[in-house]
Write a structure and sequence with these properties.
- By secondary structure, this protein is mainly alpha-helical.
- The protein has 12 helices and 4 strands, in the order ββββαααααααααααα.
- Strand 2 and strand 3 form a beta hairpin.
- It starts with 8 loop residues before the first strand and ends with a helix.
């Protein structure tokens, strides 16, 4: 049934009103005449399928396009941060390099190479205890992903022993790292071209391990580490000096003197053996022997 509220309708030819008996309409002209308008038979609404398909395509494609544009912008920003970081690092501006590399990692958090660089830059620029602690955390995070990176492990050891306040929490970690580093170097065989270098590094690490044990009040562990360093390199001045000092404190004065006497025998012309021996007797209160 026709909605009567739509009428009357003003048209160019006159006023359109509904007919009284059927669905037809009548147009009343100004002069009083009326024309009858009959609706077309079998009238039905037709859909504009082309418009509907166009709208559907827009709805489907628009999110994809927006996502692709967003990804492109993110990649471009990340690339800009990385380029700036490389530029500042080449110029020696490590703080600015670290800041831009941090921006890059916001977009690429799984880039492990960038995380390694970030840890090294943080370590390079660390001055306050908080910054050094941050460098430690970043090195530790990288080492969980790359446990084979002995260079990073050694940097963590040096940071723990030399830079951070010595505590019962970080020194055991350093001691564990030293054991891993020494164990890995022991895998270098005598026919390997790097054998001599590996032996030298073992001696250095044993001296560091002994110092770590001394801080932890593990005198026996320190003595073992110094002994091993001297076994590999009998001319190692630091190891022999500290070994003699610890042996003397343990009441083994004769062995302590023998350790220093052999150092003088191994290095008769360097003067280091004589100085180490004199320092040992001076600390022991034997000024006559120190002269």
């Amino acid at each position: 049934m026709r909605n009567q509220g739509q009428f009357p309708i003003q048209t160019p030819d006159g006023v359109m009103v509904p007919a009284e008996r059927d669905d037809a309409c009548e147009v009343i002209r100004p002069e009083g005449d009326a024309d009858r308008i009959q609706p077309p038979p079998n009238f039905q609404r037709r859909w504009n399928y082309r418009l509907l398909l166009t709208l559907a395509a827009i709805v489907v494609i628009a999110p994809v396009f927006i996502y692709a544009l967003h990804e492109y912008q993110m990649r471009r920003m990340a690339s800009t941060f990385l380029e700036r970081a490389e530029k500042y690092e080449a110029e020696g501006s490590f703080a600015l390099a670290a800041k831009n590399l941090q921006g890059y990692l916001r977009f690429n958090p799984d880039d492990i190479d960038a995380r390694v660089r970030m840890a090294l830059l943080t370590l390079e620029t660390a001055e306050t205890p908080g910054q050094k602690q941050n460098a430690y955390f970043q090195l530790s995070a990288v080492l969980t992903k790359l446990p084979e990176r002995d260079d990073l492990r050694r940097k963590r050891v040096e940071l723990l022993i030399d830079s951070l306040p010595s505590s019962a929490e970080n020194l055991p970690q350093a001691d564990q790292d030293l054991d891993i580093l020494i164990g890995n170097l022991h895998e270098t065989t005598s026919d390997d071209p790097d054998f001599a270098r590996a032996q030298k590094e073992i001696v250095e690490l044993c001296v560091i391990k002994a110092k770590c044990c001394e801080i932890l009040s593990d005198t026996e562990g320190a003595i073992r580490a110094y002994r091993y360093a001297v076994k590999i390199d009998p001319e190692q001045v630091t190891a022999r000096s500290h070994l003699a000092r610890l042996l003397s404190r343990q009441g083994q004065k004769k062995e302590a003197e023998d350790v220093l006497k052999k150092l003088v025998q191994y290095r008769p012309d360097s003067g280091e053996g004589d100085r180490a021996r004199a320092s040992f007797y001076h600390d022991a209160g034997n000024l006559q022997a120190a002269i």
